[in-house]
Structures are given as structure tokens and as C-alpha cells.
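Usage

Read records sequentially. Each one opens with the input sequence:
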Amino acid sequence: MQFTKLEIPDIVLIEPRRLEDARGCFIEVFHEKLFREYVADVHFVQDNEAMSTATGTVRGLHFQKPPAAHGKLVRVLSGAVYDVAVDIRHGSPYFGKHVGLVLDALSGKMLWIPPGFAHGYCTLKTDSTIAYKLTDFYSAEYDAGTAWNDLTLGINWPVDPSNAIISDKDRSLPAFGNLPPLFTYTELIQAMTDI
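and closes with the structure output:
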């Protein structure tokens, strides 16, 4: 596996080694010891999958508020998505910045998104399925988000906003500037160091 810190160094791209032969291929998708060494010492407690039938489906930008904040290890099982993580950690040198990249089933690339980031994606192919491991359980009480198409974030989504397929819930998420200071950069960095 190869681990690459991205423009926001707390976001890590993980590229598994793909072994191919006449039968097909084999990919190791998670290795706790390597993840702990190169990314973070975390414990995953829940696995989720979401399938979107149409191209141009947008889900996000989602996060969970403390004390149920969680990190995500994201990968695509079928199809392809444009995946985005936005830094919402007050005091971060990257506050309001984002990382966006294509994840697809063929490459097997994964993205580690720690607590303190809003996450979302847009499907690039029909019948795209995304899977993610969580470091805390889903909580409806602490579920939150921000508007996917907020122009202040400068995200270059691969879909015209008028053509995006999006839920009513996601359509009503608040603008980025209206989010309260839920995450503090120094506290989250210290928490990750203390694990």
C-alpha cells in the first residue's frame, strides 16, 4: 500500500497494490498495522455503503458534531465518484479549503478523512456504490452538514447544480459561513496525537 498526504496533510490517499492474473485480481483493502503506522491509530466501529443509480447524484456535505464526530475511510465498490472533504476545523491553516479527487472501483484508491471535515461526493457513473468505515457510530442526534454548492468553498463539482440529483435534506443544509465553531484545530490535533 502507498500512503500519500494530500494538499491538506491530514487527508491521506491510500493506494492498495493490485495483483492480477488470468483469474482476475486481488487487492488488500485494509491493513491495521500499516494504517496505524502511516495514517492514524484509530478504531473502526461501523461500515456503511451507499449506492446511487444515476450519474450526477450528490450526497453531502456531511459530518457528525462532537461528541459523536467520526473519521471515515472511503472507497468505491462500483462505478466512480468525485469525492470531496472540506476542512471545518476553526484555527486550521486549511479552514474552508477542500480536497477533491476521483475515486473509482478499478483503482481501489481510498481516502482517509479525519474528524473535523465535511464529506460529500458526486457520482460519475451509473450504479456507483461507495463504502466507508467509521471511527464512531452514526448518530441522528449529531448528524449535520453544510451546503454542497456553497460558492465560498470553491468546489468544482462535475455536475451543473441545476442538474444535480440531491435529497431534500441535503438541499436544505446551511451555508458554510453559518456553521458554528464545532471543531477546534488544536484540540483535534491533540486528540489524534493522544490516541
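Summary fields computed downstream for this record:
- The helical segments are 32-38, 168-171, 185-194.
- The chain has one domain: 42-189.
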